[in-house]
């Protein structure tokens, strides 16, 4: 039985924001900057996968009885 670790989107986004700030500072040597960049790419791919999975779940939940997807506008409170 394989266990799948739960991806923490919020933590990954916070980590990604920190990485961007570090890279934008320009204070890192090239080799460390490249490692941070690689880490950022991995985080970005993980975030994209998590968001795609969430999108698919939402589409499944919005399917009508006839099997068609009923997309609805999502309004956020102001």
Q: If you had to describe this structure to a student in words, what would you say it looks like?
A:
- With 78 residues, the protein is mainly alpha-helical.
- It has a domain of 54 residues: Helix Hairpins (Orthogonal Bundle), CATH 1.10.287.1040.
- The chain contains two helices and no strands.
- Helix 1 packs antiparallel against helix 2.
- The longest helix has 33 residues.
- The chain starts with 8 loop residues before the first helix and ends in a 16-residue tail after the last helix.
Descriptive labels:
0% strand, mainly alpha, Helix Hairpins, 78 residues
Ranges where pLDDT stays below 50 over 5 or more residues in a row are none
CA gyration radius, whole angstroms: 18 Å
- The CATH topology assignment of the domain at 9-62 is Helix Hairpins
Number of strands: 0
List the helices and strands in order.
HH
Strand content: under 5%
Q: Structural class of the helix and strand makeup?
A: mainly alpha
CATH superfamily of the domain at 9-62: Exonuclease VII, small subunit
CATH class of the domain at 9-62: Mainly Alpha
Could you give a short description of this structure?
64% of the residues lie in helices and 0% in strands.
Give the SSE layout:
Blueprint: H1 9-25, H2 30-62
